[in-house]
Amino acid sequence: MAPARPAAMVVLLSDRTATSTSAPGRQGPGRSCVPPQGPSPAPGPDPRRTPQMSTTTAATTVTDTGARTEDAARLITGARERIDDLDGRIIGLVQERIAVSEQIQRARIASGGRRVNLSREMEILTHYSDQLGKNGTVLAMTLLDLCRGRV
Ligand SMILES: C=C(O[C@@H]1C=C(C(=O)O)C=C[C@H]1O)C(=O)O
Prior knowledge:
CATH class of the domain at 85-147: Mainly Alpha
Number of helices: 3
Largest sheet: 2 strands, antiparallel
Shape: elongated
Helix content: 40-55%
CATH architecture of the domain at 85-147: Up-down Bundle
Strand content: 5-15%
CATH topology of the domain at 85-147: Chorismate Mutase Domain, subunit A
Bound molecules: the ligand C=C(O[C@@H]1C=C(C(=O)O)C=C[C@H]1O)C(=O)O
């Protein structure tokens, strides 16, 4: 299980001014893919890699959530925990699907049959596209890719 996060990573510092002239969401000047020249940087966390907890500029709260108010940040943080939980369960289900699919493929191959069964795959593609539209087809193809050919 993912560690519990604080309800909202928001710090309201109305009298704080931005330390750089960059726009909200940017992490300051000199942000580039090319490492800076000269002596090695001082030890400690690389500020370019440190998540921005909160910056208040002109009464606008910018947090890791992208929200502009504490209420919105709290809602987003809570909803993200639910999404993390759902993603964990989805990944678990995909892993379970891979294992069951492997069992079927092994049994068919051991019986002298082929690993792949295209008519069954068509059924699955149709099921997903009926329920989720054309991206459902993409999702089903990805699932079949994950499940097929591991035996
Ligand atoms: C699991 C099977 O074998 C293969 C894998 C499939 C899947 O992962 O859903 C579907 C069809 C086959 O290509 C099956 O025939 O049911």
